[in-house]
Specification:
The chain is an alpha/beta fold. The protein has 13 helices and 21 strands. It is 27% helix and 25% strand. Helix 4 links the parallel strand 5 and strand 6. 39% of the residues are buried. It binds thymidine-5'-diphosphate and magnesium ion.
Length: 464
């Protein structure tokens, strides 16, 4: 009699396992995501010996050796900063992002820039020839001449990947991507939750036992989950997310989880003809300087990660042609825009309900920081009156429902960044600064305002 195939049910959204089918996942609350899959064999000691791993012994915390300078540099200052100073040996880093955002490019740039770093680059997506062509482009070398530190392997079977990694003992292993690799020991198809989890678990064991750090590339779906299975997020040590608008050249690398550093870090890159360029001064690209002063433009301050930077907000207010006024926002929450418009209508007496309002955040960035409210309001007013705001002015405050200008966090850092970039004045809430801070020299004129009415008087006074 053939052995009965045992099955499990798991959620395709969060990877949670259940013992029977359910309409709704009890872990993540998603509907209709529970699927059946053959039960994977539990990793046995035979599996361990298969991949050449020994079973670990208990050790005293005191006796575990540490080396001072244990972080590995990757030849890319921004990536190192996001990682918290470099790659920790034996760590597993998940690099997630939408297809086409530049994950493979970023991973390949590491061995190309860091000549002493012996890297095994495994790709289940591109052939070694394609990778060579990309490397030539990145290095701008047409003759194909390059250092001998990067080995390429076109393989998708995880057992072989581990075998070669153990043979070559590289300083870094890159696996592109987790969705293309598979193992024979589970019966489901590549890129299913069971496969992804088993493959990641094996690579993790390799990393922990051999000390070879692994960068695992993963495609993420539109809603931001790393290929549905969030299972990977708690397996790995570091989760880096690569985001940005594919139509723009700017990319943001953010750390969502980091066992060896802060998750507050963020790096900005620009995709150029020869790969990703590190942008050390984000404000400079996000606030393009115009030749003439235009109406409908205001510069706001946002804090993303641990750094404040300045960003340009553009608004266009025009008479509504149809009965229903149009509202559209790119890179900004349209509900928040509607709220700010309602505040302007009520508190400043603008008849915005008869106007179309379009809002755009420069550089394809998405702004979530409410400190941008004031810049949004100013851009709208400026476009409405067709009066330009002085190029030397910038804004950092939240706008409340009754039209009051509210304080925002990290105000000192925001003022310092505005001063560093040469702005002449910054508008903030009158409740932001303590008395000591108010008397400190900031290198910039700090204008404190209480409400929308005071903003209009102060900003458009000379012109009206
Ligand atoms: P890629 O790294 O293949 O994305 P992912 O691995 O995340 O799917 O990057 C693909 C995009 O990057 C592609 O649209 C072309 C662009 N690109 C450049 O603009 N310049 C370059 O030098 C390279 C290598 C890619
Ligand atoms: Mg790729």
């Amino acid at each position: 009699m053939p052995a009965k195939v045992k099955t499990v049910w798991y959620c395709t959204s969060c990877g949670n396992e259940t013992s029977k089918w359910m309409g709704r996942c009890p872990a993540c609350g998603e509907w209709n995501t529970i699927k059946e899959a053959p039960r994977e064999r539990a990793s046995s000691s035979r599996d361990r010996s298969l991949v050449g791993l020994s079973s670990p012994k208990p050790v005293s915390l005191k006796e575990i050796p540490v080396s001072e300078d244990s972080r590995m540099l990757v030849g890319n200052r921004e990536v190192e900063r996001v990682l918290g100073g470099g790659i920790v040996p034996g760590s597993m880093i998940l690099l997630g992002g939408e297809p086409g955002i530049g994950k493979s490019t970023l991973a390949l740039q590491i061995p190309l820039r860091c000549k002493g770093l012996r890297t095994l680059y495994v790709s289940g997506e591109e052939s070694p020839r394609q990778i060579k062509l990309r490397a030539m482009r990145l290095l701008r070398k047409e003759d194909g001449e390059m250092e001998d530190n990067c080995t390429v392997l076109g393989e998708t079977l995880v057992d072989n990947i581990i075998k070669y990694a153990q043979e070559l003992t590289p300083d870094l292993l890159v696996v592109d991507s987790i969705q293309t690799i598979y193992t024979d020991s589970v019966e489901s198809a590549a890129s299913s939750v069971t496969q992804i989890r088993e493959c990641a678990a094996r690579l993790l064991r390799l990393a922990k036992e051999s000390g070879i750090p692994v960068i695992l590339i993963g495609h993420i779906t539109k809603d931001g989950a790393i290929a549905g299975p969030k299972v990977l997020e708690h397996i790995v040590d570091v989760v880096l997310q690569f985001e940005g608008d594919i139509r723009h050249s700017h990319r943001i690398l953010r750390s969502i989880k980091n066992r060896f550093g802060s998750t507050d870090e963020l790096a900005i890159f620009e995709m150029t003809g020869s790969g990703l360029r590190e942008v050390e001064n984000p404000s400079e690209i996000l606030t393009p300087m115009h030749d003439s002063t235009l109406s409908g433009v205001a510069v706001g301050s946002i804090v993303d990660g641990s750094r404040p930077f300045m960003i340009e907000i553009q608004a266009l207010v025009s008479s509504a042609v149809y009965g229903m006024p149009q509202r559209s926002a790119t890179g900004y929450d349209v509900r928040r825009l509607n709220m700010l418009l309602a505040v302007l209508e009520k508190r400043a007496g603008f008849k915005l309900s008869a106007k179309d309002v379009f809002l755009n955040v420069a550089g394809g960035m998405r702004v979530g920081d409410t400190a941008c409210d004031l810049a949004v309001v100013v851009a709208i007013l400026s476009s409405n009156f067709d009066l330009a705001v002085s190029q030397g002015s910038c804004f950092a405050a939240e706008v409340g429902l009754s039209g009051e200008i509210r304080p925002v966090g990290r105000i000192e850092a925001r003022i310092a960044e505005a001063a560093r970039l040469g702005y002449k004045e910054i508008y903030i809430s009158s409740y932001s600064l303590s008395d000591d801070l108010r008397n400190k020299p900031h290198g910039i004129r700090v204008i404190e305002i209480k409400d929308i009415a005071e903003l209009c008087r102060s900003l458009f006074r000379e012109n009206r």
